[in-house]
Each structure stands twice: as C-alpha cells, then as structure tokens.
Amino acid sequence: MLYSKLFPKTIKETPKDASLTSHKLLYRGGFIRESAAGRYYLLPLGIRVHQKIQKIIKEEMDKTGAQEMVTPVLHPKELWKETNRTSSVGFELMSIKDRNEMEFVLGGTAEEMLVDLVRKFKLSYRDLPFNLYQFSTKFRDELRARGGLLRLREFMMKDAYSFDATEGDFKTEYEKMSKTYTEIFNRMGLKTIIVESDNGYIGGEYCHEFVVESEVGESRFLMTEDGSYAAHEDVAKFSLERKNVSEKEKPLEEVEAVRGTTMEDGVKLHNLPLWQQIKDVLFVDEKGRFILSIIRGDYDVNETKLLHLIKSYQLRHATEEEIREKIHSEPGFISPVGIKDIIEKDVELIIVADDSLRTVKNAYGGANKKHRDLLNMNIDRDYKADIEGDIALAREGDLAADGGGKLIAKKGIEVGNIFQLGFHYSSKMKGANYIDKDGKEKPYYMGCYGIGLARTLATVVEVYNDEKGIVWPESVAPYQVHLVGLDLSDKAVLEKAEQVYKILTSHGIEVLFDDRIEPSAGEKFADADLIGIPYRVVISKKTGAEIEVKKRSQKETEFKKLEDLVKSIKE
Amino acid sequence: MLYSKLFPKTIKETPKDASLTSHKLLYRGGFIRESAAGRYYLLPLGIRVHQKIQKIIKEEMDKTGAQEMVTPVLHPKELWKETNRTSSVGFELMSIKDRNEMEFVLGGTAEEMLVDLVRKFKLSYRDLPFNLYQFSTKFRDELRARGGLLRLREFMMKDAYSFDATEGDFKTEYEKMSKTYTEIFNRMGLKTIIVESDNGYIGGEYCHEFVVESEVGESRFLMTEDGSYAAHEDVAKFSLERKNVSEKEKPLEEVEAVRGTTMEDGVKLHNLPLWQQIKDVLFVDEKGRFILSIIRGDYDVNETKLLHLIKSYQLRHATEEEIREKIHSEPGFISPVGIKDIIEKDVELIIVADDSLRTVKNAYGGANKKHRDLLNMNIDRDYKADIEGDIALAREGDLAADGGGKLIAKKGIEVGNIFQLGFHYSSKMKGANYIDKDGKEKPYYMGCYGIGLARTLATVVEVYNDEKGIVWPESVAPYQVHLVGLDLSDKAVLEKAEQVYKILTSHGIEVLFDDRIEPSAGEKFADADLIGIPYRVVISKKTGAEIEVKKRSQKETEFKKLEDLVKSIKE
After folding, report:
1. Residues sharing a CB contact under 8 Å with residue B253, sequence separation 6 or more, in sequence order
2. Could you give the CA distance from residue B114 to residue B70 in angstroms, rounded to a whole number?
3. What are the extents of the domains in chain B?
4. What is the phi/psi pair of residue A358, to 5°?
5. What is the CATH number of domain B253-389?
6. Which residues contact B101 (CB under 8 A, 6 or more apart)?
7. Most buried among A342, B16, B26, B571, using CB within 10 Å?
8. d(CA A314, CA A286)
C-alpha cells in the first residue's frame, strides 16, 4: 500500500475526551474514528488489525472442530420472551418493529437464536456434540461508552455455543475452549488470567473471564500470589477468620444508645470491636420483596452473591421512609431480632445471613428503635435467617478459601469469557431436545464462549505502546514492513525504493510504503513510530546497496541485505 | 471436515413456501435456514460459500486500489435528514432510539456515513481520488421477502464509495469498477449483462445493474439482439415511430361520444387508429400536485421516467372523485385542451407531454365532459405542456434509440450495481469538501458500488444445478472434494479412506469426508449430488490401490491415482 494513497493520514491532535492510551494512539494513527458515542468506524489500517485478530480466532476455533455459521442481527423478540431475558438482561436491550409490526431485538448475545436454530432439526445422540460459532455485530445499549474501543455499544463478537449430551462431555469442551482462548490471546501477545466471574444476564452456574492485567481495566478481581486462584470481586470466595466463637453466650440485653447511624458510631459508643457488630443492609428486589442482609461488621455485603442466593436480578437500597413505614424500624438501628413481628402485614421480608455470623458470639447492633441497641445477639437463639450463605465481599489481604495464601486486588481488561449454561436455555425453550440412545427426548447441555474483537484490539495497544506510538506484535500488525523512502526527489533513490517495495510484496510480505516526497525524514519517522509496524525499512541516498532496518520494539538500526530481511520476516 | 460431525445433515423435505430452485436446494442441502421471513441463518456449508464469494470480491476490489474499512450498522438519523433520505428512500427505513433518545436508522446504504467520515478530515486535492469499501449487514424493510436468499430483509453487502476531484477522474473509476464487477462475477461462473437502470433512492444521474439472465429474476430489461444496448424497462429508451406528421392540421371539433372509458371504446366509436388517440393519465405526487401525463394512445406511461422529469419520488393515480371535484373533468374523458381553465383554484396541475405527441397530427380523445370527445387536437395549437420529454415505456419489438435493432424483453437477477452520485451528497452535506490547487473548497464527485452477497450465492445455485442438486463452480464450492467412504465397517477400507482424507487435506485441499457407517452407497451419493461439491471421490472395497473420481458436472467415473487427482485439483 502506498502511504500517499492511504485514507486517512496520521494527525497530531488527540480528541478532547480521550484519556485512554489506546484511544489516543488509534485515533492519531488513523485506525479509527467515532460515529456516535460507542460506535466506531474501523478505517483501513484499523480493519487490517481487526481482520488479523479475527483470523487468529477463526484458525484456533476451527482447530477445535467448532463450526462457523452466522445468525441474523435482528432476533425475533418472542425468542427472548421464551427465556424471560427481555426483562432480566444486564445490558439495555434495543427493540425494533418492522413494517408488519413484528418485534425484534438487536442481538446482544445469541443463545436463543442458536437454540431456535438447533431445535429445527431432529437431533439424535449421534449428532452431538457440536459447537457452532459466528462473528457478528452485537449491540449493547450501555449507559456510558468509554472513549475508544474498550467499551462499545456496537462491536463484532465471536460467540460460540456448544451442545452436549452430558455434563461430562460439556466439561471436556469447556476445558478445550479455555485452552483455546489462552492460545488465541497468546498468539496476539496477550497474557490472560482466567478469572472466575459472575454469569450475570447469561444464566448458568459458573463462568470464567479471560483478563489482561491493566490499570485502565474495569474488571476488578482478586488473585492469590501463586496464581492458583483468581476470581472477580463479585464472586471471590475467601476464608472467614474465626473470632470469639468459643465465648459463652451472654443474655440478650437492650440498652439506650444515643449515637449516629454509622458502624463507627456503634463501635465508639459501646467500645467493642467492629467485627462484633452486626451490619444490617436492607434492600428491595425487582419483585418488591424486602431483603434484610446481615453480616459481621468488618465485612461488606456482596450484592452479586446476594442476588444469586435469593434468585433475583435487581436490588436497590430501601429508603428511610420504607424502613420506618413498611418495616417499622429505624435507619441505623435495624436488627434481625424480632423484626418479622413488627413489619406491615403486606410486606414480604427475607432475612439473609452471611456465614460470618457463625464466627462471632454476643454480637451487638440496633434494636429496631431509635437510640436503642441490643447487646449479646446470637444466631439461632435470638434470630433466625431465612437463608444462610456466603454474601461477603472479598478484599485484598483476605485468605483464599482453598489455600494459595493471601488475595491481591488487581485490575484488568476482560477480553473473553466462557460460560457454563447447563440446561438453562434448553429447559426453558420448548423442543430443545435430542433423542438419546434409550429413545427418550432429553434437553442438551450447553455452554457459550465470547470474545469481543475491538476490545481485544484496544487491549493489544494498551499493552504494546511507548511514548512515540503503538508497537504492534507481528501477529496482528496492519503491515509487516513500513518502508520509508527518503530523498525521493532523487530519481535513483525513488527507483530503488520502488524496487524494494516490489520485491518485498512479491514475497507475500505486507508493506506500507511511505512514498511521499514533501515530508521530512523526521515527520516520516514519527508517522512510522506512531503507526507501529514491526519493521521500519529506510531507503535513502545513504543506504546504497543495502537497506536500513529498525525493529519498532528496539532502538538499534542495522544495515542489511534485502534478502536477509526477507528471510528473517518469513521465518 | 467429517460429515458425521457436520451440523446439520441434508434432509429430503422442502419447505412448503419454497418455489425457487435455489431456496429448495440450499435448504435441503443444509446451507441455510430461515429465522424470520427474509432473515436467514447461514449454516456451516452456507457460510463457506458466502466467504468464498466475499474473498473473490475482496481480492478484486483490492486490486483496484480500493481500501476496505467498516462503518457502524446504526447510522445517526440526523445524517439521513441532511440529505432528505429519511422520507425519500424506496425501501422502508427501520429506525430505533437508544436509551438516551438518540435516533438511528439501520443502515440500508451508507452514503451519508461515508461522507460524514470523510468530512472529518481536511482533504486536499492530493488526497484524492480514493475508494472506500466495506462488507457489512444491510437492512431493507421489504414489504414482501422472497423465499430463500434472492430478496432478503437483512444481508451482507459489499458497498464501495468513490471520492474524486473531477467528473473525468470519476468516469475512469466508474469504468474500472464496471470491469472489476464483470471479473468478480466471471470468477464465480456468472455471466452478467450491464443494464442501464434507475438510480431510485440513491440519487445521482445514471447507474448500471449487473444482471444474470434468469427466469426467476425480478429485473425486467430490454436488450438489443447484438447486445450493444441493455436497459431496465424503467429507463429504456427507444426510437419513436413517426405517424401522420405530414398531415395538415384540421380544425378542432367537439363531438358527442357516448362510449365507455377505455382506449378501445374510443377506437371503436371513432373508427380511428389507437395511435391517433391521446392517452391521459392523471397522477398525484407526494407534494399533492396533480400531474396530467399525456402520451400517444399506442404507448404507455413509464412512471419512473415521469418521476425524474417532475423531480418527485412518489406517484399515485388520482381517484374518480378527485378528477370530478378537483379537476372538474370526467374519468375516461380527460383532455389537456383547456383543462387549466376548469380546475379548482387551489389545485396545482402540471401537464407532462411525451415526445410521441410530436409524431402524430389531428389526435382525438376526451373533452373534459362526459360523453363528449374532441377531434383534431394538435399540440402547440390546442394545448401546451408544462414539460415535454420521454415518459414512454419501451416494449419488446421497439427499435433501440441508438441503433442495434429491435429490443428483446428479458428477465434477470440483479447481483450488483454501480451508481454515479456526482455532487448529490457532497452538495447537500455541509463541509463535504476538499481544498483544490487554487486553495478553494470544492465538493467531491462521488460514486457508489454495491454487491449483495447472499443474492449472488443464490444466483450461482439458480444457474448451476440439475435435477439431483447443486453443481457448484470450483471457485465458490464449500469444499473441493466430497470423499465418500463405502464399506467402512471393513477396517482396511476405513483406514484407506482416512489416509486419503489426510493426504488430500495435507495438500491444502478442502475435503468433506462422509465417514458415516450406516447409510447405503445410494444415500451417500444422493447427499453428495445434493450438496454439489465439484469432485466426488469414492473409496470402497472395489477401489483397491486407486480411487474412484467423478466430477459433479460430468457423468463419467474414472479410476485414478490419488496423486493425479491432487495434481489436477491444484492446477
């Protein structure tokens, strides 16, 4: 490609709202432009990188035996109604009607579409397992888009869906996909950490994110020093420290407590440790139920864990008015003790106790009345929970649940994820069955596997850059060689440069040839550094019979024979 | 690929609504399935063909120097408002709002998006010309979809947009694109006819369709025997036959005419030739203007030509009530003579006369009153037109306007089109300029170029099939070799077949290996014929050291050495 003909050229300015390195460099280098917030044009340089990423994904997916196909972008909304996802998805779904008043959603993920396709066929156990994948545009009506490609409202996703007869077969596939993802990202120069995470709107029981550590990432996770455990902060488990469990239970006592409403106010007033206090957080879920979550004072409630325990998908904090008028308690003085006896008749209240309350005796806290506290509260004796379980937020420094030492807090960019779906979809959607050996219809066991291509592209730039620009790994670089012609007004030099361009391209090497006459050497080198192609080759008056080669990732310049460069690139 | 693992397998049934050969065969062969009307899944076999078509298009586009990129699928609606296309497009536009109430349209074509991108850059004459293209999903909210892939509501299109400084440069690009399109379709085995056509909702002054002749096509066009002229019936020009032009003009005369309202009723009553009668057709356009189109009785009005002349985009026939109450005339008795003197005051009436009225003297027709006719009407003397021009519909048998003999009516499938856009978009959209050598801002001269991939795929099947199934051309076949293993319960034969599979794939040959044990030879051969892969290779007890080869397009079976097959495929 001649740089003189390339649309567009680099520019020096950075968009006002650009804070991310990848956004700035991709913009300045001419890889991308914004259409509307979160919706980007991929320009000629940008789409070359995007296609190389796509090719790597395709090659690795094909190796596993997964089969490529593609679904329509518009999904019949009735399918999403079959699985109740029209109301439960975590991203705002965009809906549209056609001229015949048929309703569609713009595809965000395609589980329903795949099941609807597969159930059109009478499958037998012999047809299983299979894994179908596609590259297609996905839509997420995000509240806020980030600048650049890290969080988009519209992007190409590789999404795959596996269909197995048994959980055992599925686990083999899940493991295969996990290894394949690691290899895919490795090939692009990205080292990924496999992080247990929340399945959110997808459904199913477990899933993993592939995360590239980065300060600009939005995935917050906890990992042991030895790397044996990594989990998103939403789901991370840890080992509870046991406190005064051997202490004798003292009599429950109500006392005056003229204090503020914070945990610290309680600690100060009673001069007792924070961990001995009960933290009460009152939520309302999407069904209007009140959820009283209680936990040891030194821990925080993890809303994601709580949602899973109560099988809801949305929580909000109860208002002070609701606490007083519906619960007949008092903000800052809520207590599980006797609370079910004082609430309004029409109120449904569910008490969820964290496991940590089993590690403490003689706890203190509110008494459901202003300026009254209870001392020596003990679970079972003084209050009961409707549900007990793990609703605690893990923190840096906590001990990992299954060994591996202390948890360290990390941030990273989620570039891919894999989900166990189990029977979540096949049980909800009618006819999603195969005929087993025994002649009986059985639902298939499913999984799904996603990679966002544009985010992966931006992540490569976040990892591979320096103060001058991008430093593309060879596997995804838009071109392999950036040929810079200097002194091109000299006919002999121009001819030499054109010859080198011809020879390189004849060897199948992708070359961007800066054939412009006007710009100075400095401007051309700055452009080459910004665009970040792995090999910079200079032809000038000085280079004579050789060529000047510099790797973008190194400082040294070498004079070489052209054939030696060809050899080292082709290796 | 092992056929035993392929999703899905062939089936014998044909969908109830399938009338097109391509629909039936692609469905039965397992290439496609419908999601909703006009929205299809491309299954693993289908997407392989689709990708081969895409690769051919990409290779040929890249050869021309055009640069690939991609725009978002959702286009900000404000852009379409800039060019007034929200109201004027010929396909129903689908609109959608995001959670922030921003309006988008689902892209049908991307002229505005490309101009909006290009105007973000300060272009100089040095940056021109360039041509940007993309492969992306396009949406057309068609009133009716056809079964299969011939007319879809959602499909991948290759759309390209050229930006030139001058009309001369543009014409060079247009010619280049025309040749490229011919080559693209040739490589897929499709012989295309370049047909002048209507630019419709795209804008601009001229355009051409690339049409593959086919009985199931919806493009109706007229072509001379020698092929020197081909034009869509909407725009076809022809040479008007001169009638009684040398006759002396006789005095205008009003007579009683108790007759019906058809042209034939007039011919019978007056016993004069049809061509001497004036045909009056009254339309109402989208602005509410009445358009009286008049033409020689033996011709018909071409609404597309009429729309262009009056610069409107929609016509409907006036109702009988409107003719009586607004025009104060009479259905079946309308006449241009004196009509402007009798209409309602607030009515705007435009008289458009076809050129054919200059080829006849002393015409007859209605008198704007029931059962009254006029004889000896002559243009200029008795009536005047606001606009005169060509609004006549060409028919088979008419003589082409520029020689080449008689026109023949043909039908075909439009697989691609190229459009001159001129300044249509760059003049309407602010800032769509480049800085010329003289330092002045000038709008760029544009063109656009489209190919629908799925329709092209279906067209290949319409052209290449027989009573047993599809007969893919090698360039777009999903696999090159269909390896059929027979007697596979015999371990030696199975091993041999697996070895052949391995050797073929090691040579980079794409093989679909029917490794199933149960089905009979007949069933396997029927599947191979239906799927239509170019080479069928059989390994069985009988084949011994050789292999049995049959080309799908031929009847003969040959016994060959494996290496000879490899050679002939690689050639």
Report:
1. B374, B375, B376
2. 10
3. 13-189+420-461, 253-389, 479-570
4. -85, 0
5. 3.90.960.10
6. none
7. B26
8. 5
A3-237+408-461 domain in CATH 3.30.930.10?
yes
Instruction: For B13-189+420-461, give the CATH class.
Output: alpha beta
Q: Do A98 and B8 touch (CB under 8 A)?
A: no
Mutate to test the interface with A, among B1, B2, B4, B7 (most CBs of A within 10 A): B7
Distance from CA of B189 to the nearest CA of A (A): 24
Is there a shared CATH topology between the B13-189+420-461 domain and the B253-389 domain?
A: no
User: For B171-211, what is each residue's pLDDT tens digit?
Assistant: 999 999 999 999 999 999 999 999 999 887 667 789 999 99
- What's the ipTM? 0.93
Q: Which residue of B has its CA nearest to A104?
A: B36
> For the domain B479-570, what is the CATH superfamily, name and number?
Anticodon-binding domain (3.40.50.800)
Of B9, B44, B69, the CB nearest to A41: B69
Q: How confident is the model at residue B89 (pLDDT cuts 50, 70, 90)?
A: low
Which residues in B52-201 belong to E strands, given as ranges? Answer: 67-68, 74-76, 95-97, 103-106, 123-124, 130-139, 154-164, 193-197
B94 contacts in A (CB within 8 Å)?
96, 98
- Shortest Cα–Cα distance, A226 to chain B (Å): 40
Output the CA torsion A374→A376→A377→A382 (10° steps): -100
CA B238 to chain centre: 22
* pLDDT tens-digit readout, B293-320: 999 999 999 999 999 999 998 999 999 9
- Give the pLDDT of residue A84: 84
Instruction: Show Cβ contacts of residue A518 under 8 Å, excluding neighbours closer than 6 positions.
Output: none
Please tell me which residue of chain B has the smallest CA distance to A133: B44
Mutate to test the interface with A, among B6, B68, B69 (most CBs of A within 10 A): B69
